[in-house]
Amino acid sequence: MMFLSYGFLLRASLLIAGVWWCKEILGRLRDDLAELKDPDATRRGVIIGLWAVTAVIMVLIGMFAWSIIANAVRAF
Prior knowledge:
- Helices cover 84% and strands 0% of the residues.
- By secondary structure, it is mainly α.
- The protein has one domain.
- The model has no long low-confidence stretch (mean pLDDT 90).
């Protein structure tokens, strides 16, 4: 139980929220691609912004998962 700290629990909670976010956004891919053809620049900007945030979240999830795996390998 030494590895359970408030920081770890916070990061684990953020990991769960990030995975949920990515699942929801990836489910919208087909609709978002269709809406990108819309001439409304504001709508396109929002869609691109959401996908940019999703890309950052995916990178952070990967980094967090990599750190957990690296720590587990170092422990053995």
